[in-house]
Write a structure and sequence with these properties.
By secondary structure, the protein is mainly beta. It has two helices and six strands, in the order ββαβββαβ. Strands 1-6-3-4-5-2 form a six-stranded antiparallel β-sheet. The relative contact order is 0.37.
Length: 91
């Protein structure tokens, strides 16, 4: 059963971690109540996406951004700000 999240944040694109392109989700461990991987749906700069938030090991989760989504939003450079709305947590 999907669970509504309704959480919006803005974060810079990052490129130096475990994924080619990703965002750090601020306060995600508190928001999600876990440090494990969590599947979510939502929008990124208005474009719908589904992804798995991956635990970083240091607290916040990472949101991997696929190349197709970077192309859709017209952003892929490190430091570019992206607004994300997490709509649902999937189980």
């Amino acid at each position: 059963m999907p669970q509504d999240l309704d959480h919006t944040f803005t974060a810079p694109i990052e490129k130096d971690g475990s994924f080619p392109t990703y965002l750090t989700v601020p306060d995600s461990a508190d928001l999600l109540g876990t440090r494990k991987a969590v599947k979510v749906t939502g929008t990124m700069d208005g474009h719908e996406f589904a992804a798995t938030l991956m635990p970083s090991g240091q607290g916040p989760h990472w949101l991997p951004v696929r190349a197709a989504l970077c192309k859709a939003i017209g952003k892929s450079a490190a430091g570019e700000q992206v607004t994300v709305h997490l709509a649902q947590r999937l189980t």
